[in-house]
Amino acid sequence: MTVTFRDFRPQNIAPVSLARLVAGFTPEIDASWEEIPVRGVSMASDEILAGEAFIAVGGANVHAAKFAGEVESLGAVAVITDAKGAQIATSQGVKIPVVTVPDPREAASPLAIRAFDNPAGKMKTVAVTGTNGKTTTCFAAKFTFEAAGLATMILSTAETQVGDLRIQSSRTTFEGPMLQRILAYGVEQGMQAAVVEVSAHALALARIAGMKFDATAFTNLQHDHLDYFHTMENYLAAKARLCSKEFTDYSVICVDDKWGQQLAANCDTQNLTVSAYDPAAQADWVVTRKVNNIAHAACDFTLTGKTEPNVGREEKITVALPGEVNVQDAAIAYLLVTGIGIPAEAVKAGLATLAVPGRLEIVSRRNEGTPLVINDYAHTPEALASILRTMQEFTPGKLHLVFGTDGDRDATKRVPLAKVAAQEADILWVTDENPRTENAQSIRAQLLSGIKEERPEMENVCEVTTCRRDAIRKAILAAHSDDTVMITGKGAEPYQEIEGVFHAFNDTPVARDCLAAYKNRAHIQG
Ligand SMILES: CC(=O)N[C@H]1[C@@H](OP(=O)(O)OP(=O)(O)OC[C@H]2O[C@@H](n3ccc(=O)[nH]c3=O)[C@H](O)[C@@H]2O)O[C@H](CO)[C@@H](O)[C@@H]1O[C@H](C)C(=O)N[C@@H](C)C(=O)N[C@H](CCC(=O)O)C(=O)O
Ligand SMILES: Nc1ncnc2c1ncn2[C@@H]1O[C@H](COP(=O)(O)OP(=O)(O)OP(=O)(O)O)[C@@H](O)[C@H]1O
């Protein structure tokens, strides 16, 4: 069954009168409209359901009021828009009420909270922001809630998941109406906790306006999205709001970079600071001991309290992911979730089983008699270098890398990506990612030319010309049990795009199938 976002819809939304929905957003509405029942709101004409109100914002491409006639024919009961939108809507002769508000984008999330009856208020909720580590920290929080027995939903870049229903997300943070609708669906499905990944764009564009979380966290700030925010200061200011009283009363701030330190110094919530990289840092908690658990591809670490009432308190924690960035994310998640009353033992149990789709996702651990096999979506030279260096520490044998790169996307990264691969991995399996409309062999040739700059003899380089599945199979079957096979580039993507066709394909199940062959072979030989 193909899951779409349309499936994440609550079935039993109690209607709100139009008057109550827009109260406070507009001075007065026509008396004959007041009692019109509204069952939900939507910002997109292709998502609207009969009975909903359409919130029409002016965007970079189009003013949504242009779709007023269309949504009316689909059963929308009102259009909520700005003055310009009202003109556009009425000029189409729509018969449904057109309600004017000063800023429909700002109003969208609060209106959705009202229309969907404040679903977040019925669950425990946490939200995470930061340039890197949001998804991992969100999953860490989810695993800890679940270990404490709470049915937990997640809205993250990697996946939107409510119970058995899961789908790869199209966005980091949805527009307010979609976000509230999915939360309302979660409540209907018996979810007791929700974890929400929040991008800086979402904060700047009011996608979570009006929400109040039980706890929020900030991971770090790195150079990104300056096309939108222009300066790092603006970028921090957008993210910092998540850790302010506007959205929460309790937050956890990682102070391993100067941006976190700046945020903590100005934070108006009750907050805990944490450093994973500097035991001498001025922070409420610091990571004092990190040990790679090579057999389990995990990290053991100690979180030590430095301020009252926790001075000298030590929490011994295992996070089931390799690499110190994951220690940072796990430490943040630990404080985030214990801070709102989840018992420490449950939190530790959750972190000890943490797995994130397509992010250092462990397909097979070395202690299962197979090589360590990992699926990760690193697709930039920097990310690939970082992840391969991490995995060197966890690899007593050879590090195999199965990789390719996207077609119809930034071709300038191909040679640098290939050079990193040649520098940091031992055995390279060059294959296809999403060739799209480009010639796959020409993309591989560009990668091979980058590799050749580092390895003129091309030793331990294998071009797999058939398909990605073959490359994964060949690498796994060639690996010894003390080797690591890294499959990078696609992460949790459920398809491979070739010539405009999206072929169902996900690296993790493909690798699992190949591992079954590996085990069979070992069994026959043994
Ligand atoms: C800067 C930004 O966030 N732009 C978003 C914004 O664009 P816009 O308002 O200018 O949209 P528009 O196309 O002019 O349409 C205006 C309105 O008409 C509606 N419409 C449009 C067409 C139609 O047929 N019917 C219809 O109803 C749209 O739903 C929209 O409400 O509203 C559009 C519809 O909701 C979004 O698709 C678009 O997100 C773009 C694609 C996007 O992804 N933006 C990125 C920058 C973003 O938000 N990324 C962050 C992650 C960042 C990170 O990596 O950390 C994220 O949270 O995903
Ligand atoms: N705390 C961290 N600091 C720096 N890098 C990190 C951290 N946690 C994870 N990473 C790395 O950053 C990349 C993205 O991780 P993750 O998906 O958790 O973050 P994100 O903020 O959700 O990013 P995205 O929105 O791009 O998915 C991965 O390559 C991961 O190894």
From TrEMBL:
> What positions does the entry give for ATP binding?
G130, T131, N132, G133, K134, T135, T136
Which positions does the record annotate as the modified residue N6-carboxylysine?
K239
Source organism of the structure = Varibaculum cambriense
Tagged with keyword Hydrolase: no
- Judging by the UniProt lineage, the source's domain of life is Bacteria
Amino-acid positions noted as binding UDP-N-acetyl-alpha-D-muramoyl-L-alanyl-D-glutamate in the UniProt annotation, renumbered to this chain: S45, T172, T173, S199, R207
Protein name, UniProt field: UDP-N-acetylmuramyl-tripeptide synthetase
EC no.? 6.3.2.-
Domain Mur ligase central intervals:
128-336
What does the UniProt PTM comment say about this protein? Carboxylation is probably crucial for Mg(2+) binding and, consequently, for the gamma-phosphate positioning of ATP.
On whether Ribonucleoprotein is a keyword of this UniProt record, the answer is: no
Report keywords, A-Z: ATP-binding, Cell cycle, Cell division, Cell shape, Cell wall biogenesis/degradation, Cytoplasm, Ligase, Magnesium, Nucleotide-binding, Peptidoglycan synthesis
